[in-house]
Amino acid sequence: MNISVPRRVTKATAVAALAALALAGLTGTTASANPAAAAAAPDIPLANVKQHLTDLQSIATANGGNRAHGRTGYKASIDFVKAKLDAAGYTTTVQQFTSGGSTGYNLIADWPGGDPNQVLMAGSHLDSVSSGPGINDNGSGSAAVLETALAVARSGYQPTKHLRFGWWGAEELGLVGSKYYVAQLPTAERAKLSGYLNFDMIGSPNPGYFVYDDDPTIETTFKNYFAGLGVPTEIETEGDGRSDHASFKNVGVPVGGLFTGASRVKSSAQVQKWGGTATAFDRCYHSSCDTTSNINDTALDRNSDAIAHAIWTLSAGTTTPPPGKVFENTADVSVPDNGAAVTSTVNVTGVTGNAPSNLAVGVDIVHTYRGDLVVDLVAPDGSVYSLSNRSGGSADNIVQTFTVNASSEVANGAWKLRVQDKASVDTGYISGFKLTFP
Ligand code: DTR
Ligand code: CA
Ligand code: ZN
Ligand code: ZN
């Protein structure tokens, strides 16, 4: 270490720095966009949707080859989707019902915020038939709706309307789960539903692009999206009553949705329009071959992005990130010159699941010659994340927010900022340590 004449950091300087830091933290919101203008939907990463399909395939494989109502593979599917939504900050509810002597489950996920009297809902059935894993029917819809919900959370989207997502049980037995949900919904609550968007089979291997023609506003929203892609669409003619949107339509809720086809054969005119072959849209419909190889990636990607477009457009919100959960320790901790490491601790409580991949770690260390310092974040289980290792040379102080991928760590527990001065002469102290969870 070069011997430098340390610039004495006055308390006033530190207070000013701290105040600036605090002010930034307090007013960390960006200028809110024009609430009247709908924010643009993010791209839904196809890779993420396909990973969910791979996970659902694994669940089926581990549970007798299917994810059917009343079988272990279905409950495992519910638990899988629920865990991801809980970790993302959703308020989830598992609704039980009985059908055919077996217990069925619906999963409902509410995104906190928005007008509770205007609820935009999107859903898909999560069950397969017993003869196969049901990756297109209907892992495709379930995975795309899941990834759209996760995109809402990642973006900190604050819709004008309240967003709710649903994954239905026992659709293959006759829309049983969605019928049960609607039947249990008080009339006043049904009236708050501004729309229900349904996605059942949206990745068929020989795809068509069908749009439900039930509600004109929703239909137009989807048709405009595909027109923007230069992809022609057709009205879904066989859909009435054939999937979960019927449960909502039957009680007067505006509905819409997308479909890429099942066992019907694609006509030559449709082949001209969409490509593919004049064979079944999905030759593995309700069969054991409805696996992860029974998916057309382009159709799945386009439909996933169309779902996000419809959610953002029909919910009309801004992108002001929600305030995170903040845990802070502002007690000064002196750092021994060229001595033992010291720590500042924050005890995180009330955060569900694991920490995020973008955990904000606020560090405020007042110390001349910051290059003396080794600074680590220590997770509750003792895992160490290096924040600064003898970097910065003769510059003073470390006042910085680090972003740490702490997604493998359970959120709740005692987190520590550990600081060690590894060279003599320059000295200082920990002034603040802050963790912000989305
Ligand atoms: N009943 C759905 C498949 C299905 C058949 N026609 C349509 C139309 C619109 C949506 C879905 C469907 C199933 O087997 O899950
Ligand atoms: Ca995409
Ligand atoms: Zn089916
Ligand atoms: Zn289906």
Structural topology:
Elements: H1 11-26, H2 46-62, H3 72-87, E1 91-99, E2 102-111, E3 115-125, H4 135-155, E4 158-159, E5 161-168, H5 176-184, H6 187-190, E6 193-199, E7 210-211, H7 216-229, E8 234-235, H8 245-249, E9 255-259, H9 268-274, H10 297-315, E10 317-318, E11 325-329, E12 333-335, E13 342-348, E14 359-367, E15 373-378, E16 384-389, E17 398-404, E18 413-421, E19 428-437
Parallel strand pairs: 3-5, 3-6, 6-9, 7-8
Antiparallel strand pairs: 1-2, 2-5, 4-10, 7-9, 11-19, 12-19, 13-18, 14-17, 14-19, 15-16, 15-18
Helix pairs in contact: 2-3, 2-4, 4-10, 7-10
The structure holds D-tryptophan, calcium ion and zinc ion (ZN) (2 copies).
In short:
This protein is α+β, with helices and mostly antiparallel strands and 438 residues long.
3D architecture notes:
With 438 residues, the chain is of the alpha+beta class. The protein folds into 2 domains: 4-316, 3-Layer(aba) Sandwich (Aminopeptidase), CATH 3.40.630.10; 325-437, Jelly Rolls (Sandwich). The chain is 29% helix and 27% strand. The protein contains 10 helices and 19 strands. It has helices at residues 11-26, 46-62, 72-87, 135-155, 176-184, 187-190, 216-229, 245-249, 268-274, 297-315, and strands spanning 91-99, 102-111, 115-125, 158-159, 161-168, 193-199, 210-211, 234-235, 255-259, 317-318, 325-329, 333-335, 342-348, 359-367, 373-378, 384-389, 398-404, 413-421, 428-437. A hairpin with a 2-residue loop joins strand 1 and strand 2 (102-111).
